[in-house]
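We close this part of the discussion by returning to an individual protein. In the encoding step, the backbone of a single protein was reduced to a row of integers, each denoting a local shape. The sequence in question and its structure tokens are set out directly beneath this paragraph.
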Amino acid sequence: VQLVESGGGLVQAGGSLRLSCTGRETIFAVNTLAWYRQAPGKQRELVAVITSSGSTNYANTVKGRFTISRDNAENTMYLQMNRLTPEDTAVYYCNLAYSWWGQGTQVTVSS
């Protein structure tokens, strides 16, 4: 299973970024997807989850600022991140079915 993330970068506090995760396998569209992140010196943490039917759940730290979505026809998942803060700086990882991981994309928020 190959997952490819994109969309990371450097942004000022208060700005926005949209991350994408694309998979080629058919199981992508029928499984739960999630975004995790890992900041330097910290454990990897769950950011947002979306089920195959579109139900979502968010970490309290991002609720109201981040939106997870998916396009099953395109085998793509998104994470729209608004009102970013320096505390959101981390490597963001795409996860499929709580089993497979992407390579990660760096998000850096400057103050």
